[in-house]
Amino acid sequence: MIGAVLTLVLLQHPSGRAQTSDPHAQGPDTAAGRPCKIVVDTVGHYGRQVEVRPGETNLFAGGGVRGHCQGTSSTLVADSLAWYAGVGRLDLLGGVQIRDSAMSLDAVTVHYFVRQERLDAHKNVVAVSRANGSVLRGPNLIYYRVVRGVRDTMEMYASSRPTIEYRSAGDSGAAEPYIIVADRVRLKGNDRMWAGGSVTIDRSDFAASADSMMRDEGAGRSVLVGKPRVQGKGARGYTLTGRRIELGLNGREVRLIKALGAGSATSADWRLTADTIHFLMERRKLQRALAWGDSTRPRAVSARNTIEADSLALDAPDEVLTQARAFRHALSTSQGDTAGDPAASRNWMTGDTITAHWATAPA
Q1: Which residues pair with 35 in a beta bridge?
Q2: CA distance 107 to 120
Q3: Could you give the CA distance from residue 239 to residue 22 in angstroms, rounded to a whole number?
Q4: Of 129, 83, 125, nearest to 108 (Cα)?
Q5: Residues 6+ apart with CB under 8 A from 63
Q6: What is residue 310's three-state secondary structure?
Q7: Measured distance CA(93)–CA(114) in Å, rounded
Q8: Contacts for 244 with CB less than 8 Å, ≥ 6 apart
Q9: C-alpha–C-alpha distance, residues 117 and 151, integer Å
């Protein structure tokens, strides 16, 4: 990306079109977070230098500007360019395209603050990470680039409900991304994200929503707070809510979903409530549910059965309930023949441990 040393010298070509030269020697590569010396290769219509005071010269160019970071493949394109030496700011206006080893960026306007190593992009912003293919679209973006001795990890901030196609490192171009939308987002490096304000996360098999979200792939963890809700989109999907929901990650895949506090889960076969509920996932489907707690005694309810105990374990391979196990002070009730008195036809069983099995109904 554009770096901390800007060197532009506009020369007037005999044809009347402005060209540029750079009197300095070959600049260092920016891939390792080093400054970039910008060389303007072509100016389509005009170029002008204005000496504001001795040693301080502002530069203006228009009619289509193309440039690059000297000694690298990083390039920039814009309709117009303005450099204000006193404040160390470069403005790129109209049809801006920046391409480097870390990111490709398109926007209508870009302001680059050299001393802060900060880039502000506005209107129709599209930023694509070259590391994992994630795409951010929105009305604005603030980007802090990596610079040795200044910042060792890139950071990005966006507001006004940007949309992110989030992919993990190592994903192929065909890998399905998570679609994340929020009022505001912050990204640090290629594996950490924070989002706030009506956050939604969607994929073909999975959906989630909350007031705020944190995702750290390095730690294998994501957290949803503020009325969090997770939904499985399979044919026999599930819904899970709680005061706080944590996701255990293995790369881009969700392996564990934890509802912490006031947990409530529903599926096609049963409803489960408890202080704490854990969902174990495999092949993007629910395989097992565990529940325990003190303030809310775990309770599982199906069409005709109710089981409660100090802790519960429900086996549901590929989201089909096959077995429930209840531990300590277990109570099971089931509804018998409902043609008569419902109270008289209710069966019950108690014990330290109760195991219930469900057979798959014939077609």
Answers
A1: none
A2: 10
A3: 61
A4: 125
A5: 43, 44, 45, 46, 79, 80
A6: coil
A7: 17
A8: 223, 224, 225, 228, 259, 260, 261
A9: 9
pLDDT tens-digit profile of 62-114?
Answer: 999 999 888 888 899 999 999 999 998 999 999 999 998 888 999 999 999 98
Share in percent of the chain as helix, strand, coil (round to 5): 0, 60, 35
Count of CB atoms within 10 A of residue 282's CB? 12
Which among 335, 328, 330, 344 is positioned nearest to 303, based on CA atoms? Answer: 335
pTM, full prediction: 0.84
d(CA 221, CA 231): 18
What would the two tokens of residue 270 be?
Answer: 């049963």
Q: How far apart are CA 348 and CA 117, in angstroms?
A: 70
Q: What is the pLDDT of residues 218-271, one digit of tens each?
A: 899 999 999 999 999 988 889 999 999 999 998 778 999 999 999 999 988 889
Q: Which of 161, 152, 224 is nearest to 188 (CA)?
A: 152
Residue 163 CB contacts under 8 Å (≥ 6 apart), including other chains: 136, 137, 138, 179, 180, 181
Q: Which residues contact 136 (CB under 8 A, 6 or more apart)?
A: 125, 126, 127, 128, 156, 158, 162, 163, 164, 165, 185, 187
The DSSP 8-state label assigned to residue 319 in this structure reads: G
Distance CA 141, CA 106 (A): 11
Supply the DSSP symbol for 147: B
- By the 10 Å C-beta count (0-12 exposed, 13-18 middle, 19+ buried), 81 is classed as buried
- Residues 6 or more apart whose Cβ sits within 8 Å of residue 281: 253, 254, 255, 256, 257, 287
List the beta bridge partners of residue 75.
68, 99
* Closest to 326 measured CA to CA, from 358, 349, 352: 352
Phi first, then psi, for residue 315 (nearest 5°) are -95, 125
At residue 28, the pLDDT reads: 40
The pair of structure tokens assigned to 140 is: 């604005």
